[in-house]
Amino acid sequence: MTTLITGGTGKTGIALARLLKQAGHPVLIASRSGKAPESFKAVEFDWLDPTTFQNPFQANTTIDKLYLIAPPVFDSIRHVKPFLDFAVSQGVKRFVAVTSTQSNPGDVPLGTLHQCLLDLKVDYAILRPTWFIENFSTNFYMSIREKNEIFSSAEDGRVPFVSAEDIAQAAFDAFTAEKSPNRDYFLVGPELYSYDEAAKLLSSVLGREITHKRNSVEQQTQIFGYFLGGNGKTGSILAKLLHQADVPFLIASRAGKAPESYKAVAFNWLDPTTFENPFKADPTIDKIYIVGPDNVYDALPHIKPFLELAVSKGVKRFVALTSTQSQPGDRPSGVIHQVLLELGVDFTILKPTWFIENFATMFYMSIRENDEISTTTENGRVPFISAQDIAEAGFKALTSEKTLEQEYLILGPELHSYDDAAKLLSTVLGRTITHRKISVDEKTQALSHFLVPEYAAYLANIEHLIAGGSEEKFTHEANDRNTADMTILVTGGTGKTGSILAKLLHQAGIPVVIASRSAKAIEPFKSVKFDWSDPTTFENPFKADSSIDKVYVVSPDGLYDVIPVMKPFLEYAVSKGVKRFVALTGSQFNPVDGPSGATRQCVVSLGVDYTILRAKWLPTDAPCSDNFSNGFDRTIRESNELCTCGEDGKVPFVAAQDIAQAAFDALTADKSPNKDLYIVGPELFSHDEAMLLLSQVLGREIKHKRVSVEHQRNVYSGIMPADFAIYLAGLEHMLAVGSEERVFNETDDKKIMTILLTGGTGKTGLALAELLHESGHSLLITSRTGKAPEPYKAVKFDWFDRTTFEAPFQSDPNIDKVFLIDPPAFDVLPHVKPFIDMAIFKGVRRFVAVTTTQTNPGDTPLGRVHQYLLDLGVDYAVLRPTWFIENFGTDLQPSIRDNDEISSSGEDGKVPFVSVKDIARAAFNALTAKDSLNKDIFVIGPELYSYDEASKSHDTPLYFGTIGRREITHRRKSVLQQAEAFEHFLSPEYAAHLARVENLISEGGEEKFFYESEDRKFVGKQTLSGYIQDNRGLWMR
Questions:
Q1: Which residues, if any, are the signal sequence (predicted)?
Q2: Considering the entire predicted model, what is its pTM?
């Protein structure tokens, strides 16, 4: 016969299953998922769902014994009794149930199970274990590890702690005994210990003092009210979604086990030896869902090594769970965001608001027993979100073809205060539930019973932010974003630039509607009938998609007088909510000249955001590089010649791909450029030179036939209206007098050229990227992985691998400026020089490099690049920042947090500490200025501080939130001592160099730059006191 084990995936249940199996007894495990570990047969069963009660007996008709673990609810008999009655009716003859030493028959919650079995008059055994010995490695685990304490309300009382294995053995004996015991048994361990004695035993084993914190009954009740049922559910729900979609996945858990039939592997954030396990178990892992370690405030030392390992193992996409209030670098969960940014990989950060499930977990006992919810939120409102919705967002982010936006706010559909929630609960439960408003200190104290102090303080403080509207604002921002980030209409969507633009938008996950005369477009694009010559079609796009807010405008083919046709549509589009237009015109026109000038006038006169792309393409102007394979292909193919009236004029031919990319950038930029932008290719060619290149490629001679303007007008008149033919031939003839060559040479500030950022995923690089993007500049980021955060385009580049040097220019031939962050080597010139040489060959005209205040041209390590730029005679700027203000939150952060000290060899010297954002602003100015600086600039902050003054921070004392004030000291080290400290993360020669440079502070080496002349320095705005105020959580402990 068969034994049915409820709670079969728990500690005692699985131990019992193993014992029965080893003895040759058939076993069936009942679990909510219908799955069980270790190949045990299982069936779906849920105490709270009576429809599952028959499942075990349908799966196995030989069940005659039943192991009972009651559900984790206070009034469990309501759920248990119906199942016991049904089990008896199905032939079960013996029951073994687990209650507790303190549960007598009829007592709530577990004694009612005992009484029920007595009333049924069946064979039974009641196992009444004392407190589990495993509690020290589960319930007390974090308090022992982080706080060196055990908490209880037991005072000096002693307990014969018992193990789950011993309980399972007792159950096995009760089941396999020839005759049922029909009685209850107290299950105890072999020794008596008070919690004081247990703490002493732990102290002797761990080598540090563990204490027993004596709580009152009220305090302990509040603690249990927080952690009962507190396990997260997003991972298990996500696993189900992936399983249903047939997406392979692997679950990582500390036990190496997983519910259902899922494959699992042992993984523990706090044990780096387990980090390799997932990749050994499955080397095909390419995506990871990240939930940071529980109850660990400073998670960075645990998270960073694993993420770096994952990238090295080929992981290409990460989806991480943080919170609405977590910014990159913030502890505890924001550090995940920061590390992913620095790694330059594809990622999505899921930022949910407060879980709706908290009412069934964190607040369960206080609602159940005290009819109340206690929070610090006052009247603040929250768009509560469910674990199911979070899991669905994670599923979408993991399985979408393209990585979703970097930050993904996850909000529920309604705003509720905790007062509102209490009223709803009162209505449902039929009794009054109140919202008790408590202080931050009260909340911190309550949370500190089961969380490390800094984590408890963090949670209490962010909960209190709700009172100030911290969570409600996200609902309003999301509504604004939903209104602004909508659909883009692409007119001419089946044409050369339109079709490419549609693909770029689709790949970026931006909704697109294509407008064409045929109302047809290739999959997967949505299309609508639209004809410039038929005003009745103007409303079609907005009927098809009412969320259109941006339009790419390509004027009607071959039409000279475009205003009567275009103006009514553009005005109608504005009336339907369109807020931005990007229009494609030709490069040569006066403001109201011809179709291009008229198009511009129509768009600009609307008074909305706009960009005018002034490019060369058929049929509006000519020529575009794509014209050689389209407009001119027939004469080239059939007559081996190309006819133009442009004589020897040179053209910076541009590809449709580049025009589409420029349109994409203008449409998706956070801020509209609101100006004309010339779009040119990277090289100048006459038509003679272009035909010579074609001849070499095709293996036959292709000639440029020079014709008169009249001849060209006649040719064009055969394929387009006469007025447009005259206009187009005239534009082509202007090539002869250098019309396009002047655009190439004289209008760099209006061309869509690209700025390359090396080190673009670092702090300065990302800050600079944000400034450039917000200003509408085209940019390309390099990283070793070839990845960068959205919305930036990236390319693989490694200073130590010269084969990657050409990749940026292959990706974007329009690069004309480069931001240089040198590699982490002592002598950087051998790595940087070959790249600079190649960049100049590829058309780069300006370099902006970053060195240091103490690095003069020619100095090692960074000054040699400075000298090389001087020797080349190219346009350049060298930014020479002082010591970073962010060092207090990175290099010096652990010593401030853990040891209350700053260490340096700077003695009493003063430093004008500068922030990376200010350095980025200086770089932005140097890269975008019309004229190159061609000099070096000292980049400093607005104030002078010694390290003594910084440790005291007399303007704003180092203040650690709810922890209070504490003294931070400046520990003075010798140059040798500091060099030894730097050697932990730098090469010996670099460490020695850095220690010597730091010691120059003591001689006024940094202070002097504060008094440099205004033309030699850039003074930032970030103050040290402001930085400390904004980031004080970094130093909490």
A1: none
A2: 0.41
